[in-house]
Amino acid sequence: MPWFSEIPPLFVSFFATVLLGFVVGLEVHSYRRANDKDLGFGTTRTMTLLALSGFVLAVLDPTLRLFGTGYAILGILLGLKYWNSLSHDEYSLLPTLIALLIFPIGALALLHNAWLLILYAVVILLVLGEKPGIRHLSDQVRNGEAATLAKFMIMAGLILPMLPNQVIIHGLNITWYQLWLSVVAVSGISYLAYLIQTYALPEGGILLAGLLGGLYSSTAATIVLSRHAQQSSHSAQLPYESAIVLASTMMYLRLLVLIAVLGHFSTAQQLAPPFILAVVLALAAAWRLRPHTNRAPTEALNDPNDIKHPLEFSTAALFAALFVIFAFLTQLVVSHYGSNGLHWLAFMVGFSDIDPFILSLLAGHFNVNDHAVIEAILIATASNNLLKAIYALVITRNTRLLRASLALCAISLASLAYFYIT
Fold first, then answer.
1. Of 2, 270, 312, 374, which sits with the fewest C-beta atoms within 10 Å of its C-beta?
2. Among 385, 386, 341, CA closest to 361
3. Comparing C-alpha atoms, which of 222, 242, 324 is closest to residue 286?
4. What is the dihedral angle through the alpha carbons of 392, 398, 400, 401, rounded to the nearest 10 degrees?
5. CB burial readout 13-44, b (16+ within 10 A) else e
6. Higher pLDDT pick, 307 / 382
7. What is the DSSP string of 79-108?
8. Quick one: CA dihedral 177, 180, 185, 186, positive or negative?
9. What are the backbone angles phi and psi of residue 169, rounded to the nearest 5°?
10. Do residues 226 and 363 both lie within one domain?
11. How far apart are CA 110 and CA 91, in angstroms?
């Protein structure tokens, strides 16, 4: 038996309380010294004794009534102290808040949830110690980002759990939960790409715009890149062609991740070989299409109008509507024309938004075999690449992006040929 197993749990909780109270007190002292200002009260000893007081009250009354009474009295005293100090411009509310956070450490230690106690203390330490980083992050965040995050939390944490796992329309094997889960999955990946592009790598340039734009929407990324290529006076020396091909590369990876995340592992395994083939060919084409001059001018896509967050409820509603419409059309086409009709539908859908079509096709369990479903997905991605090739030529109105358009067509043909040959 290990020696530490013989240590009384109460002693372990006592030691953890004193240690964490002392460490947080040290950080408060460091914060006070770094900012060279009087924060009121809150020395290392004070914080340690506050944590110990909460521990003692929790031990004396396991029902925590005594602890709650002491916490309320502490809150009143701290409130009066702050009220009387409002006339001092340098007085900060921070030590009062830290004191209120330190007092419950003892009660948390007694619950024997070590991970919760450590996480609680670590968050306090990080908030105190990373003031410059937090201030810089706050200055960089755009207006309305909190509302954007709230929208995602509503979509994923509020709406999704409330939806029933019942079919939307009789005869259509799509449930409300499947529908909204697809919306959340697509929005989540798009939101992650938006955050990376906006905050982590805002000056990433053209190639990164193609990569991250492809995670959001390869079609939208192609349109933006084509517009910049058309407006740029030296676009022949810039990697617009490579970036457009890279956007389609990310389309394949995004779809593969989405299909796996939503639980269609068998389909993801069958799609992996042709998708990986398409990705390899796209990367090779992007490398081949890169500018060969060593002094190519640099340019970044920093226009704020090019980067918009994807979490609008209207966008989610449109995706959900397309999901149901495509599911209904798929059911109608399959019942009348079978696999051949599904393939023609996939080709036509490729000239619009393929995500809701593919996800509704997988969620609906229509009366077609797995091979027909795989072929339909490949056809949809191929025709979508054809659409992007057309966009690139039409928007630029010249041959600047001709090689990129030809590369997209070749990638589509190669991914289709893989499955028809095998």
1. 2
2. 341
3. 242
4. 20
5. bbebbbebbbbbbbbbbebbeeeeeebbebeb
6. 382
7. HHHHHHTTT-TT--SHHHHHHHHHTTHHHH
8. positive
9. -130, 135
10. yes
11. 34
Instruction: Kindly write down the DSSP assignment for every residue of 188-228, as one continuous string.
Output: HHHHHHHHIIIIISTT-HHHHHHHHHHHHHHHHHHHHHHHH
Domain boundary at 108, 137, 166, which? Answer: 137
Whole-prediction pTM: 0.72
Rounded-to-integer distance, Cα 240 and Cα 246, Å: 10
* Residues 42 and 154 both lie in one domain: no
Residue 367 is predicted with a pLDDT of 79
Annotate 126-147 with three-state secondary structure: HHHHCHHHHHHHHHHCCCCHHH
Same domain, 166 and 131: no
3-class DSSP assignment, residue 177:
helix
Placement of tokens 């759990």 in the chain: 161
Residue bearing tokens 């980002």: 145
What are the distances in angstroms from CA 39 to CA 71, 90, 299? 22, 7, 47
pLDDT for res 99: 86
CB distance 8 to 65 below 8 Å: no
Residue range of the domain that includes 176: 144-421
Contacts of 23 (CB under 8 A, 6+ apart): 121, 125
Number of domains in the chain: 2
User: Tokens 């309380």 identify what position?
Assistant: 17
153/356 Cα distance (integer angstroms): 21
Provide mean pLDDT across the span 294-305. 49
Q: Is 132 exposed, middle or buried (0-12, 13-18, 19+ CB in 10 A)?
A: exposed
Q: Dump pLDDT digits (tens) for 242-283.
A: 889 999 899 999 999 999 988 889 999 999 999 998 999 999
**Claim to verify: residue 84 and residue 183 sit in the same structural domain:** no
Q: 120: which 2 tokens?
A: 């609680």
Q: For the CA atoms of the chain, what is the radius of gyration? A: 29
pLDDT computed for residue 377 by the predictor: 92
Residues 273 and 337 in one domain: yes
Indicate if 323 and 410 belong to the same structural domain: yes
- Are 183 and 118 found together in one domain? no
Domain boundary among 137, 167, 200: 137
**Residue 106 near residue 51 (C-beta atoms within 8 A):** yes
- Listed range (81-90, 230-239, 290-299, 332-341) with the worst mean pLDDT: 290-299
> Encoding tokens for residue 113?
């949830």
Mark residue 296 as left, alpha or beta (left: phi above 0; alpha: psi -120 to 50; beta: remaining).
Answer: beta
As beta bridge partners, residue 167 has 175
